[in-house]
Design a protein that fits this description.
mainly alpha, 69% helix, elongated
Length: 134
């Protein structure tokens, strides 16, 4: 492995870990919403913001260190991270619906559905819009 490949692999792993952190956070939000224990969400907005900043930094580092061309092994690992992102987006959408059902979020605060379209997110990362693999 070359230095740039090692750097990319490290950045991709940091990105994967940041995705898992976001998913854990969104799952905790979903659990609190489902149980009605909204007091469990104290400080959630700050944790969410910090996790998303970390995710954005990891995404940027991954993009900046990505080798050209990308090997099949790397493509598979990238697909795994893209799948985690999709999972986080689905959880976030479910949580938005939970907040709306409890009338704790004004409908105007929910982003336009075009910006939350999974096919659009997949296309940003260069993957086909369908749910099948690469």
């Amino acid at each position: 492995m070359t230095h740039s490949t090692d750097t990319f692999e490290s950045a991709l792993e940091a990105y994967r870990q940041a995705c898992l952190l976001v998913i854990d956070l969104f799952q905790a939000e979903a659990d609190a919403l489902a149980s009605g224990s909204l007091d469990q969400l104290k400080g959630f907005a700050e944790r969410r913001k910090a996790a998303l900043v970390q995710l954005e930094g990891a995404q940027k580092a991954t993009r900046e260190t990505a080798p050209r061309p990308i090997s099949e092994t790397q493509r598979t690992r990238i697909q795994g991270v893209a799948d985690l992102i999709q999972r986080a987006v689905r959880l976030d959408r479910q949580n938005e619906q939970g907040w709306l059902r409890r009338q704790l979020m004004p409908p105007g605060m929910v982003p336009n559905s075009a910006t939350r379209n999974p096919a659009r997110i997949r296309s940003i990362y260069g993957f086909p819009g369908g749910s099948k693999g690469l």
